[in-house]
C-alpha cells in the first residue's frame, strides 16, 4: 500500500433529520499514516459524519470504502470490529465501571468463562501509560475528573486494533502536559500506518499535528487543504465563509469602583484556598491555571455546589450560599463545565430548557408558546442553530447546547454574578465570538463575570483582569492589556510570577 493509497473514502454522504439536512453530499478521503483534520463550525456536520463512519447512524445516500472494500456498518460494534475507533467529545464511558473494565469491555482476556483480571489490569495499565495517565486502573470512571476520563477514552481506542481512529475534540479538557502526551500517541499511531481523523477548533493544534484538512460548512465539504501550505486565517475563512478576526481584545475601559463580589476566602481542605479575590460590576475576571489548579472547584464552591468554607460579600453584604438554589436567589448563575450532566435536560426542547429558570415551574408544565416568546431573543442573540424552538436540545451540536445553557440564565434575568466554567469547550470560532459578545453585553449592564478557561488566548482577549490559580491557590494577577501572554503563561505553568 503506497502513501497515496486511500485508507478511507466517503462519497456523496447524505443524512437527513426531521426539518434539516445535516449532510448534503459530503466527500472525505483519508490516507494511511495521515492525520486528517476535520474542521467546521458547530452544526457543520462533523459529528454526524463521524457517527455514520462509526455505525451509529446509517446514511440516507452515499458509499464508504475502507481500504478499497465496501464498508457499511450497521452498529458501532460492527464499526469497531472493522477497525474504526471513535473517541467522542461527549465520552461514551460507563461511569460505574472501573478504568480497566471500560478499556477492555467485551474484549477482556478470559480463561473459560472467567475474566483474567490480572492480565486485564496489565493491558489497561500499558494503554494508560501510553497516553501519559497516572491514575490507577482500578479507579471508578465516574469518580475521575473530566480530563482523566478523556485520557481513559483515548486509551480505550488504543486497546482496539483500529485502522482509523477518530478523535473528536480530544484536547478540550486536557492540560498542556497531557496534550503533549496525546500528540506523541498520535504520531506513534501514524508511524505504524494507522490513520487519525482529528476534530478540533484550536487552530494551533491543527497546524501542529495535521497533514491535511477537510472543511465542512452547512453540511457540505467546501475544500481539502494541505496544511503545510495553508495558514490558519485561510482555514477560518473557509469555515465561516469570510475572513476576519473572530475574537479580538476588548476595547472597553477597565471597570473601576468598589467590588460587587469580594471573596475573602474560599476553602476546601486539600483542594482550594483562594483569598482576597474581587470582581467589580461590569468586570470580566479570567481564571487561568493548569488542569486541577482549582478553577472549577472555586466556581462550584461559590455556587453552593460542593461543601466548602466560603467567606464572601456581595455588594457589601455577607453572601451565604448553602445550595445552588440559594445562589440563584442571590443573583449568581453558573454555566458548568459539563453541560449535559449539569446544565441541560436533554429530552426536552430548546425553548423549554432555556425558559425553565424564568418561569420557575417544572419544565414539563411550561406552556410552549410562552417559553418560545421568552427565549427567542436570547437564542437569537447567541446564534443557536436548531431546526426550531421545539427541537430536542439533546439533538443539537455540543456548541449549540452550550449556548442554550447560557440562554437559560439570560432569559431568567436578574444575574448579578455570572460564573463561566470552560464556556467555549467544543465551540467553533464563530460560536466563541457569539458567546463572548453576549458575555461582554452582560458585563456592560453591570454583571460581574468570573471566567474560567484553559484557553489563555481567550482570557487575554476577553478578560479585564486575569487571576492565576496554582495548586488551589491564587498566586498572581495580571492586566492582559499590559502583560505579555508569555509572562502569564509562565506563571500558569510554574505558579510563580517572574
Topology:
Layout: E1 8-17, E2 20-30, E3 35-39, H1 46-54, E4 61-66, E5 69-70, H2 76-81, E6 84-87, H3 99-103, E7 110-111, E8 114-115, H4 117-130, H5 146-158, E9 164-168, H6 176-191, E10 195-199, H7 203-209, E11 212-217, E12 220-226, H8 232-240, E13 261-268, E14 272-279, E15 284-288, H9 295-302, E16 309-314, E17 317-318, H10 324-330, E18 332-335, H11 339-343, H12 350-359, H13 368-381, H14 398-412, E19 417-421, H15 429-444, E20 448-452, H16 456-462, E21 465-470, E22 473-478, H17 485-494
Parallel strand pairs: 3-10, 3-11, 6-9, 9-10, 15-20, 15-21, 18-19, 19-20
Antiparallel strand pairs: 1-2, 1-4, 4-5, 7-8, 11-12, 13-14, 13-16, 16-17, 21-22
Protein name: Ribose transport system ATP-binding protein
Keywords: ATP-binding, Cell membrane, Membrane, Nucleotide-binding, Repeat, Translocase, Transport
InterPro entries: AAA+_ATPase (IPR003593), ABC_carbohydrate_import_ATPase (IPR050107), ABC_transporter-like_ATP-bd (IPR003439), ABC_transporter-like_CS (IPR017871), P-loop_NTPase (IPR027417)
Amino acid at each position: 500500500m503506497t502513501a497515496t493509497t486511500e485508507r478511507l473514502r466517503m462519497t456523496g454522504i447524505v443524512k437527513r433529520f426531521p426539518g434539516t439536512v445535516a449532510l448534503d453530499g459530503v466527500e472525505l478521503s483519508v490516507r494511511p499514516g495521515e492525520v486528517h483534520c476535520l474542521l467546521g463550525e458547530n452544526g457543520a456536520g462533523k459529528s454526524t459524519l463521524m457517527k455514520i463512519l462509526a455505525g451509529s447512524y446509517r446514511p440516507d445516500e452515499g458509499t464508504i470504502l475502507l481500504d478499497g472494500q465496501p464498508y457499511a456498518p450497521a452498529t458501532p460494534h460492527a464499526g469497531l470490529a472493522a477497525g474504526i475507533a471513535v473517541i467522542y467529545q461527549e465520552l461514551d464511558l460507563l461511569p460505574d465501571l472501573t478504568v480497566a473494565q471500560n478499556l477492555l469491555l467485551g474484549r477482556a482476556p478470559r480463561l473459560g468463562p472467567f475474566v483474567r483480571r490480572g492480565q486485564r489490569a496489565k493491558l489497561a495499565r500499558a494503554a494508560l501509560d501510553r497516553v501519559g495517565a497516572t491514575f490507577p486502573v482500578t479507579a471508578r470512571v465516574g469518580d475521575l475528573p473530566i480530563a482523566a476520563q478523556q485520557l481513559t477514552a483515548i486509551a480505550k481506542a488504543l486497546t482496539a486494533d483500529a485502522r482509523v481512529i477518530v478523535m473528536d475534540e480530544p484536547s478540550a479538557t486536557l492540560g498542556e502536559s497531557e496534550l503533549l502526551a496525546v500528540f506523541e500517541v498520535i504520531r506513534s499511531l501514524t508511524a505504524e500506518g494507522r490513520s487519525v481523523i482529528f476534530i478540533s477548533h484550536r487552530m494551533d493544534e491543527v497546524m501542529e499535528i495535521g497533514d491535511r484538512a477537510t472543511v465542512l460548512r452547512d453540511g457540505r465539504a467546501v475544500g481539502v487543504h494541505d496544511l503545510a501550505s495553508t495558514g490558519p486565517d485561510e482555514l477560518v475563512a473557509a469555515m465561516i465563509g469570510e475572513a476576519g478576526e473572530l475574537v479580538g481584545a476588548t476595547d472597553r475601559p477597565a471597570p473601576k469602583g468598589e467590588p460587587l463580589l469580594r471573596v475573602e476566602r474560599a476553602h476546601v481542605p486539600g483542594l482550594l484556598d483562594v483569598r482576597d479575590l474581587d470582581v467589580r460590576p461590569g468586570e470580566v475576571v479570567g481564571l487561568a491555571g493548569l488542569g486541577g489548579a482549582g478553577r472549577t472547584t472555586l466556581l462550584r464552591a461559590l455556587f453552593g455546589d460542593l461543601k466548602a468554607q466560603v467567606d464572601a460579600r456581595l455588594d457589601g453584604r455577607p453572601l451565604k450560599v448553602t445550595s445552588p438554589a440559594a445562589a440563584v436567589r442571590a443573583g449568581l448563575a453558573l454555566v458548568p463545565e459539563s453541560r449535559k450532566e449539569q446544565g441541560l435536560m436533554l429530552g426536552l426542547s430548546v425553548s423549554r430548557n432555556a425558559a425553565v429558570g424564568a418561569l420557575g415551574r417544572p419544565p414539563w408544565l411550561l406552556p410552549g408558546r410562552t417559553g418560545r416568546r421568552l427565549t427567542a431573543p436570547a437564542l437569537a442573540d447567541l446564534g443557536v442553530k436548531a431546526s426550531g424552538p421545539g427541537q430536542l436540545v439533546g439533538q443539537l451540536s455540543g456548541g449549540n447546547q452550550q449556548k442554550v445553557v447560557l440562554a437559560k440564565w439570560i432569559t431568567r434575568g436578574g444575574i448579578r454574578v455570572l460564573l463561566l466554567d470552560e464556556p467555549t469547550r467544543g465551540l467553533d470560532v464563530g460560536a466563541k465570538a457569539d458567546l463572548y459578545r453576549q458575555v461582554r453585553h452582560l458585563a456592560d449592564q453591570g454583571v460581574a463575570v468570573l471566567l474560567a478557561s484553559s484557553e489563555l488566548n481567550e482570557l487575554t482577549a476577553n478578560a479585564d483582569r486575569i487571576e492565576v490559580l496554582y495548586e488551589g491557590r491564587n498566586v498572581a494577577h495580571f492586566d492582559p492589556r499590559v502583560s505579555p501572554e508569555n509572562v502569564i503563561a509562565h506563571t500558569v505553568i510554574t505558579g510563580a510570577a517572574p
